[in-house]
Structures are given as C-alpha cells and as structure tokens.
Amino acid sequence: MKKVSLRSSLLLFLTASIWGVAFVAQSVGMDYMGSCTFNGVRFLMGSAVLMPLVWFRRKKDREKQIPRAGLKITLTGGICCGVALGSAALLQQFGIMYTTVGKAGFITTLYIIIVPVLGIFLKKKVPGKVWIGAVLAAFGLYLLCMSERLVLGKGDTYVFLCAMIFSVHILIIDYFSPKADGVELSCIQFLTAGTIALVLAFVFETPTVGSLAAGIIPLAYAGIMSSGVAYTLQIIGQKDMDPTIASLILSLESVVSVLSGWIILGQALSPRELMGCVLVFGAVILVQLPDKKRKEMVG
Predict the structure, then answer these.
(1) Which of 30, 36, 242, 258 has the fewest CB atoms found within 10 Å of its own CB?
(2) 1 lies in a domain?
(3) Is residue 106 within 8 Å of residue 163, measured between CB atoms?
C-alpha cells in the first residue's frame, strides 16, 4: 500500500473543497446552456489555463536538463483519463435531469465502495480499516444526501454508471500519475474531455455566444477552479496515495457542499446531516491512522 503523506491528503482535501463549492456554479450554469455545452467549454477552459504552465515547466526542465516522462505515456494517460472523465461528467449531468440532487450526490459518491472492489480484481490489497472506513463513509453520505426513499429510476441508473466510471477514472490516475507529469496529464485530460463534450454539444444542442457570455461566471469557476485547479491537484495528490484512501478523501466533496451551504448561504443543517458529516470525517481520519507495527522482542 502506498504511503499516506500529509501533503497528498491536504491536496485531495483541497480538491474536494473546491468541488464541493463548485456545485452551485454547475447548477447555475445549467440555466444558461445545455450540459454538453457547459462541460465542453469548462473542460477546454481548464486545458487552456494549464497550457502556459505546461510550457513554462517544460522550458525550466530543459534548462536544468531534468529528464521528463515520455510523450507516449503522457498522451496515453491523458486521453484515457479524459475519456473516463468526460463520460462520467456527462452521465452525471444526464442523471440529474431525471433524479433528485440528494440521490445523485449519494449514488455518485458510491465510488468509495466501488474503488476497493475494483481494486481486488487488479490484485490491490485493501486493509481491513479501509473497508470499515468505506462502509462508514457510505452510511454517512446516505444520512447527508438522502431525504427520500432509495428507489432506483432512470436517472439513478445514469448516475450509478457515472459512479462506476469515476471509480475507473481514479484507478487510471493511480496507474499513470507516477509515470507522467501531473500537469501535462491533466491538460491532455481536459482537452480530450472537452473536445468530446463539445462535439456532442453541436450535434444535440445549440451553443450560442450569448448563452456563454451570460453564464461566464459559473463557467469560469467550473473551468478554472473546479477543472483546471482541482483535477490537477487530484492527479498530483494521488501520486503518493492509495486509490481507495484517495476516494474516501475526495468523498468529502459532499460534506463541504453541505457545510458551505450552511456557512455561506445560511441553509439549515439537520442533526441527521450533521451526523453524516461526522461519520464521513471520522472515516477519512480512520484510514489515515498509522498501522501498528509489531514490536520486536529484545533479549
């Protein structure tokens, strides 16, 4: 199991925090344009933000004669991440059209259970405390997100497929992040996801300059912060992190979303939701506690 570092944990927590606050921007953005248009522009915006950074880092490494990852592995990783991210984001957006936000949030974060299950097939060893943490977090998220009966419908099926693909996305990052530059991987990821979404937008929707201009504020946050910054932090943070633990930390997105609504918007936080927050935070802390090492007998 990869060593859990404080730096990686903080980067992933910052990622979850940005995503949690970004929920408002994504909801408002849908008032101005279709889901394919919104996702296409936000991802391409994220890629554009990272391009100057990629150029600067490459120039700096050339000057210092620092070896870089091969182009083939970086392109392959970025395209694979982009296809997974773009597919998951679109499925989630389609699902939200046919289900409630609470159910969508809960089903999406089921990746905290799906990731360790998929990890078994990839021969990844998952310690017992991580399984316990995943179950605790899943129950906490149920308390946090669900206010109605869990009866799966058309939209819920889309969102569950989204959770499956997000799980695959986390495992793809786990594979490629140690082998390629995180910023370049993220840049190619957004370029791929944005291109796919924008092609679908011109086929199924009618993008206009006016709608983009009207929704520029939510687009800017989703494109620069939620995409360009947060997904890049995810790739860098996962480099030294077990994918199952990473998924648990990223699930704090739902907690941050509720807490930001409570603090910023003054929305009421029920005892049930508060208990859900406590369980998720507790699960994240549990999986990061150091394992007890057997003491060697002396004498």
Answers:
(1) 30
(2) no
(3) no
Measure the CA–CA gap between 172 and 85, rounded to whole angstroms.
10
> What contacts 121, CB < 8 A, 6 or more positions away?
none
**Residue 298 covered by a domain:** no
Question: Can you give the residue range of the structural domain that contains 174?
Answer: 6-288
CB–CB of 233/12 below 8 Å?
yes
Q: pLDDT tens-digit profile of 210-221? A: 999 999 998 999
**Model confidence pLDDT, tens digit, residues 138-194:** 888 777 666 656 566 777 788 889 989 998 998 999 899 888 888 899 899 999 999
Structural domain count, the chain: 1
